[in-house]
Amino acid sequence: MNLTEIKKRLEGFEKDIEEIISLFEQKHKHRDEIMRRYKIIKNLLKTERDKFQTLKGEEKATEEERQFYNPAVNEAWLELHTKVGSSPSQEMIDCLSSAKSEIRHYLG
Predict the structure, then answer these.
(1) Phi, psi angle pair for 17, to nearest 5°
(2) What is the mean pLDDT of residues 36-61?
(3) Distance CA 14, CA 71 (A)
(4) Residue boundaries of the structural domains of the chain
């Protein structure tokens, strides 16, 4: 991926996280949707992270992916430590906010 593609992907993750956070305004009404979307974003970030965890993945990565995309995805995923399947909580909001901040950091 080049820098433009990386930026688009990271902005997409950021937007997804923002949408999940916005559902917390009525978390009782959107409980299942929050849980479903949290699982999706956490799994998606893990899948993207895992692509670079092998020697082959590291060798195939562009310099931009090594410097920006992989660290952003890895750090965002690490922030999502609330377990999948957990009920929406302040801890989940905090995790999502931290993940969003990590992505924002790499977007500049």
Answers:
(1) -65, -45
(2) 92
(3) 15
(4) 3-107
